[in-house]
Amino acid sequence: METGGKQTHKKITLRDISERTGLSINTVSKVLNKKPYYTKEVEQKVLQAISELGYIVNLNAAGLRSGSTRTVAIIFDDIASPFYSYMTDAIAKRFDAAGYDTVIFSNYGRNAYVDEALLRRVLARKPDGIMSFLEPSPETVRLIRRHGVPFLIFGRCGEKYGLPSVHADTEVGGRIAAEHLFERNYTHTAFVGSEAGIGVGEDRLRGYAKVLEEHGIALADTPVLYVKELGYEKVAQELLRANVNGIFCYSDIIAFKVISQLKKAGKIVGKDYGIVGYDNIQSMLELPEMITTIDVGNEALAVGGAARMLGLLQGNDEDVFPEDGIKPFLVKGPTT
Fold first, then answer.
1. Bond into 37 cis (ω within 30)
2. How far, rounded to the nearest angstrom, does the alpha carbon of residue 256 sit from its chain's CA centroid?
């Protein structure tokens, strides 16, 4: 309706739907909230009226009444990451099938943890549960416990925080990567990480270091470089200065960027050096260049992560994986 050139909008209510359908407000509410019992004919009447009137459910109000918003929040630090996007899509589809919406939160790479400020933003949206690709800070753990919202750490171990988690054995992944490099005679190696101190990165580095030790090489005598500290250009310069011939990267994204930088210096992957990435994002995307990488059991993780979160929402804290967890495995590229 327009008044004096201004468009005004009347808020559509359950009463409007009731009057349009000839059904009671209580019956309309049952259909909207999917509560028994009503016939298919009644459901069709309500859905048609909703479409004609343009009714939008007020989820905030519904959540206050029921104590549930039927939403799960997912937290990560890099919204552009193909790995996060793929895994979030696979998980969210399973939430949707169970009747839950997914809300995405990111700290846009500000840090590698869920800090208290970010968690407060998430909690303000009243999700029924929270799934995080990032580990929580100590302050965040206290806030999680205070509010009691189910919180699942995904892709990282939650044991040290006393929180449920679904993850692969990333130390094993680091070991597999290093073993492959040595098998291919890339014995003068380096590790390129994202940021120092990240738990999952330290686990990968630990597995890598154990293989070095088995070959009589101390980690202290091996380049360990972090792109957040140095930047990719400086990382490449350090790799060239150290004359390494084997590189293990924290992620595929880092591996591809290192390859790009070394190519500028005339170094060709598979000829001048070998490289192993992590996450197997090439299985998710059609990439023009394939590399050797570690797959963490992406599909099994997505299925297990969604199942564990849905279990927590029902008050079930039972782990969905066997005691030895999911084992990473090597995916060989054509050059390394």
1. yes
2. 20
Are 222 and 243 in contact by the 8 Å Cβ rule? The answer is no
pLDDT, one tens digit per residue, over 238-290 is: 999 999 999 999 999 999 999 999 999 999 999 999 999 999 988 887 777 78
Q: Judge contact between 258 and 249, C-beta under 8 A.
A: yes
In angstroms, the first-to-last Cα distance of the chain is 67
173 burial (CB, 10 Å; 0-12 / 13-18 / 19+) is buried
Residue with tokens 């924290």: 250
Closest by alpha carbon to 126, among 49, 90, 72? 72
Q: Residue 258 is encoded by which pair of tokens?
A: 């290192």
Which of 273, 317, 313 is closest to 291 using CA atoms? 273
Euclidean distance between CA atoms 171 and 271, whole angstroms: 28
pTM listed for this prediction: 0.77
Q: How far is CA 177 from the centre of its chain?
A: 22
Q: Quickly list DSSP for 264-312.
A: HTT--BTTTBEEEEES-GGGTS--SS--EEEE--HHHHHHHHHHHHHHH
What tokens does 289 get? Answer: 């260049």
pLDDT at 77 over 50: yes
Q: Which residues contact 179 (CB under 8 A, 6 or more apart)?
A: 211
Q: At 272, phi and psi to the nearest 5?
A: -90, -20
